[in-house]
Amino acid sequence: MAGSLFPRHSHSSFSLFSSLLLSLLLPTMTFTTKASSACTSEPGPVKPTIPLVAFFDRLQETALATFGKTNFDPKFYVDLSLKFELSKTQKAFDQLPKSANGSASVKDLKEFIAEYFEDAGEDMVLAEPEDFVPEPEGFLPKVKNPEVRAWALEVHLLWKNLSRKVSDEVHKRPEFHTLLPLPQQCVIPGSRFREVYYWDSYWVIRGLLASKMYNTAKAIVSNLIYLIEEYGYVLNGARAYYTNRSQPPLLSAMVFEVYQRTGDVEFARKSLPALIKEHEFWNSGIHKVTVRDSQAQKHTLSRYYAMWNKPRPESSTIDKEFASNISNVDEKQHFYREVASAAESGWDFSTRWMRNHSDFTTLATTSILPVDLNAFILRMEHDIALLAKVTGDHNIAECFLKASEARHEAIKTVFWNAEKGQWLDYWLGNSTCNEAQTWEACNQNQNVFASNFVPLWVEPFFSDASLVEKVTRSLQSSGLLCDAGIATSLTKSGEQWDFPNGWAPIQHMIVEGLARSGLKEAKLVAEDIAVRWIRTNYVAYKKTGTMHEKYDVEKCGAFGGGGEYIPQTGFGWSNGVVLAFLEEFGWPQDRRINC
Predict the structure, then answer these.
(1) Is 348 a catalytic residue?
(2) Which entry of 393, 549, 583, 584 is annotated as an active-site residue?
(3) Of 80, 67, 261, 108, which is closest to residue 179 (Cα–Cα)?
(4) Taking the model in full, what pTM does it have?
(5) What are the tens digits of pLDDT across the range 368-401?
(6) Paired residues of 179 in beta bridges
(7) Catalytic: which of 123, 348, 495, 552?
(8) Which long-range contacts link 430-435 to residues 24+ away (Cβ below 8 Å)?
(9) Residues of the signal sequence (predicted)?
(10) Using CA atoms, how far apart are residues 311 and 422, in angstroms rounded to an integer?
């Protein structure tokens, strides 16, 4: 199913490809002793967008002025589809009578939208996955409690509700849509997130694998590889307005997990060229930063950096309001880039990216080397090395093994803080630098975030027993462990990636790292967190009838809030993590499931 979408390479032609690639990569993949310029000069690059997105920016502003802020979601307007040519639609829009503040009458604007647009989400149609069965053979064998098992089957059933395919209309007239014409069926997060998202897909796939839906998992990978082939990297999401940024790079982890379950060597081989291309994206140009340590060794690491300096199209009216007090044009463009770069991180938004935790306009994402991003790229290097090895490409395997060793050393040198027993984000002295940064201990961000523990998810960190012991103790005393899971931070800012919200991906990475360590104490902590997380998901589901995007970890059974949109339900990665936890830890007959 998925294989037909991959670039076709014979084994010999891929070996030729890998030899050519090595000649290109080796000069740029520096391994602690040599490195090139770390940062780029402002203004950074800007990816042009399509005319339809620019028009929707105007429509969004008029809609806000007309309908007001109550229940206003700017994303709705950029997810509409044209019924007619853009020129005709723009002409009709320009002829709408408008007041001095840009508003139209509510009646006129509603009639215009109904006449000229298909509703948001209509370009994605329900599509039942061919590999879905109501109760797969061998499904969650460790779940012995009948109440929990019945609920798990309901969560499994949600894959049918979240499965979509791009409508034929998008393939026929792509210029009428912001939705991108993905070639395969997909799984969406749910609610306002009507399209595929990059890092969400990893935990969706983990759930699909627990549900024995291997073809659906492969199709998701194929769609993401399609984006790499079209754009050179995986987009934040499958919309034209997301082409200016990526998201946490977990495609190699998806390929690895699918390969590990299926043993499909051909799937692994066909995935490799795209994975290598993505690695190059994150390790060159604006994303690449070099830090010189106290021994004068240079370490190459990566940062988030969106290719955009305007309001995010999906949240344009929100971004403009925040920027309204910034009078300088260059400063305003810089702010917009920092906002988009925070969105690239997946943590949109958090005090993690702010110089002043009470001032959103002090976002400085591009001035931070993030712990978790570099852990993800370390995992990518490990994954590529392993996948190359099993497909017989030993040159690529050796190249990426060396790259992983260099990044492992860089993570230890730049991020590790032995006193705290955590890996800390590193503030860059000047994000517009033209040479290597000099490492200084005072530039480590001393604030506690759940991301400080994410490297534990990645080899070789979780296999270092003394390190795991130290990090486990640090996690237990960090203040992040709450009644219903791991909090994202200790700061109650009102942003959604802060206290008291807990997110499924964070729980999963930290729990899986602890569980894989082999240490008895770490495994007990892992299972305790997983039990708390499963329980709060279950109780919230029974109260509300749905799975949620995020949860309030202070209270068992409470869903989360904060941020720039109302709480969302569905929900792809929450479903995936619950199924993955139940597969790993099970649920004994006599363990209670209620709070």
Answers:
(1) yes
(2) 549
(3) 80
(4) 0.94
(5) 999 999 999 999 999 999 999 999 999 999 999 9
(6) 239
(7) 348
(8) 430/39, 430/367, 431/39, 431/42, 431/364, 431/366, 431/367, 432/39, 432/40, 432/41, 432/42, 433/38, 433/39, 434/37, 434/38, 434/39, 434/41, 435/37, 435/38, 435/290
(9) 1-30
(10) 34
